[in-house]
Amino acid sequence: MGMWVGRGRKARRCYGFDEIALVPGDITINPREVDTSWVIGGMKFSIPILAAAMDGVVDTAFAIKMGKMGGIAVLNLEGVQTRYENPDKVLDAIATATKEEATKLVQGIYNEPIKEELIAKRIKAIKAAGVPAVVSSIPQRAEQFGKIAQDAGADIFVVQSTVTTVTHISTEYETLDFAKFCKNMKIPVIVGNCVTYKVALSLMEAGISGLLVGIGPGAACTTRGVLGIGVPQVTATADCAAARDFYLKQSGRYVPIITDGGMSNGGDICKAFASGADAVMVGSAFARAQEAPGRGFHWGMATPHANLPRGTRIQVGTTGTLEQILFGPASLDDGSQNLVGALQTSMGNVGAKNIREMQLTEIIIAPSIQTEGKVFQAAQRVGMRK
């Protein structure tokens, strides 16, 4: 399988959201009557959209509001919320920095040590509001922070790194044993990120409760440019979904997969579900909310890396409330608002009653889907051709 790229070397053709389209179904359903809910670790959520664990997207107030609306917002345990008692000053500094100053400033800000007491404090604040607390850390700190988070009342723990595998070789530091970690944790563990069938299957066999799919597609991420690695999200999602379905047949246990990054509008989100996702994780769309802590700015989790930043600060602007972005009414014409409404309408048009049926939607290769008939939109820089 694949095409020749040189003598004796083949490459597989992979696809991103802009290259495919969904085919309408043989039946259609009233969008108000479709079920968008999903389940992880025995917990059911009405919105299958997670807010990414990025400092420009999620703080305790945002997590509370998202939770009250039926979704999940993941708090980064290695960000400004757990390094500073009063993170607002820091966030103001990041938002007002020039383009030239931004990366160096962010690197310096994240040199401040993480304070364990703030981890517990932030989690307890979210739980006090009566919503689930979901938090994230890198593998190297997962055992330490996982125990703190669990004791503080967290509902789900996310272990996230640029590329995650069950077997990580290092002589410099002790590596995380995912099987042991998942077994010892009393709450569900979501792990990521990965983009291949083999790694997805091995992580599921290690006992994870959910899988994040995606390397480098995020709006503020530069991993693909800096490191040259990544797989377009449609192919990555489909491959990991195949691993999920095989694992279900082998074990009888269903491990939901969460497409993480690369979705800038409702259409991309719908395509992610049709590619096999059970839920999606979004950053930049939520960074535009009035409630987001980034003040209209968004930066990747790897931006503060001391030697090799793999993210950048971008200005996304503030376009509406979190409620508008999730449920409308949309005031913009680019598909970045009323994301749940877009998913419901798409499901209705393809004839999918629930997310599992949405995963069976017919997909076609359609490289002209973004440009066909859009001459005026392109000329006027509106709608799909901004």
Helical/strand content category: alpha/beta
The amount of beta strand, in percent, is 15-25%
Please work out how many helical segments DSSP would assign.
16
Number of strands: 16
CATH topology assignment = TIM Barrel
Q: Provide the residue-averaged pLDDT.
A: 92
Major sheet attributes:
8 strands, parallel, barrel
Q: Choose one word for the global shape.
A: globular
What features would you describe in this structure?
The chain is an alpha/beta fold. The protein has one domain: Aldolase class I (TIM Barrel, Alpha-Beta Barrel). The protein is built from 16 helices and 16 strands. It has helices spanning 60-68, 80-83, 88-96, 99-109, 116-128, 139-152, 178-184, 197-205, 223-227, 233-251, 266-274, 284-287, 322-327, 339-350, 355-358, 375-380, and strands spanning 3-6, 9-11, 20-22, 38-40, 43-45, 49-51, 72-76, 134-137, 156-160, 189-194, 210-213, 257-260, 279-282, 297-299, 313-315, 363-365. The strands form five sheets. An eight-stranded parallel barrel has the order 6-7-8-9-10-11-12-13, surrounded by five helices. Helix 7 (178-184) links the parallel strand 9 (156-160) and strand 10 (189-194). The longest helix is centred in the middle third of the chain and has 19 residues, at 233-251. The radius of gyration is 20 Å and the shape is globular.
